[in-house]
Amino acid sequence: MTSRVTKAVIPAAGLGTRFLPATKAVPKEMLPLVDKPAIQYVVEEAVGVGLTDILIVTGRNKSSIDDHFDRSPELERHLEAGGKDDELAVIRALAELAEVHTVRQGEARGLGHAVGVARRHIGDEPFAVLLGDDIMDPRVGVLAGMLRAFQERQRAVIALREVPREQISLYGCAAVEVVDGPLVRLEDIVEKPSPADAPSDLAVMGRYVFGPEIFDEIERTPPGKGGEIQLTDAIKRLLGEGEVYGYTFREGRYDVGNKQDYLRATVEVALQREDLGPAFREWLLHRLGRA
């Protein structure tokens, strides 16, 4: 196993039913945050920490994801003819952002199965997994910290964040032992426990770094509820073979498959923009003052 991670897998095959009817014909990962689709922020996060070989695992009716990261000669000619140099530069830079590949999951059999579909592309190399509807503020440095931890420990690292106890049943949950700073060692991990049975308040978030051995554990993991192969269950099996680490953080994550978080993320992105932030902030304060 090489220590430097250059590949990323982005599962993006979900149906996005929480955003119907908007997602009836548009993938949830293509819903915009201001003027970029959500999945572009995920790809940019990966590229920002040196991951330049990106595999997006898609499903039916998700061809717009392929199109978004592909070249568009007709659009480029139109922009060039119209003298829209700034827009042209943005479109060309998008197509050159990374080496983006796509593969279809085929059938919805859970997150573990979606990651397993990437085996042929990843081969025997380590890789990161970034969920396509989880947006991380890159300034918080979660993925960069996880990659450093993986390079030092050469063991799987998963992102963890405390959530209110009553929400823990929405996530995988880990029992841990503190190692150093944000780094912890997993003692156990369970998928969506009830609040009464949860071993902690630490929830598994949408970022992981694995060695290729996770694929064997996925193949050995039996289907659970609904016939789905859970990535959390495969991590539990991996834990039985050696150490697995968690990287804890407190802020900067948005689940854009959730309407409240989608709105929060949109506001945060707009406020950070130099071209939009000052005027938008002024309007927002004025609007809240009238509330």
From TrEMBL:
Protein name: UTP--glucose-1-phosphate uridylyltransferase
Organism expressing this protein natively: Acidiferrimicrobium australe
EC number per UniProt: 2.7.7.9
Keyword Nucleotidyltransferase among UniProt keywords: yes
Alphabetized UniProt keyword annotations: Nucleotidyltransferase, Transferase
Cited Gene3D superfamilies: Spore Coat Polysaccharide Biosynthesis Protein SpsA, Chain A
Catalysis performed (reactions): alpha-D-glucose 1-phosphate + UTP + H(+) = UDP-alpha-D-glucose + diphosphate
GO molecular function term, any single one: UTP:glucose-1-phosphate uridylyltransferase activity
Keyword Nucleotidyltransferase assigned: yes
SUPFAM superfamilies: Nucleotide-diphospho-sugar transferases
Ranges for domain Nucleotidyl transferase: 7-269
Entry-linked Pfam families: NTP_transferase
Sequence similarity: Belongs to the UDPGP type 2 family.
InterPro entries to which the protein is assigned, alphabetical: GalU_uridylyltTrfase_bac/arc, NTP_transferase_dom, Nucleotide-diphossugar_trans
CDD domains in alphabetical order: UGPase_prokaryotic (cd02541)
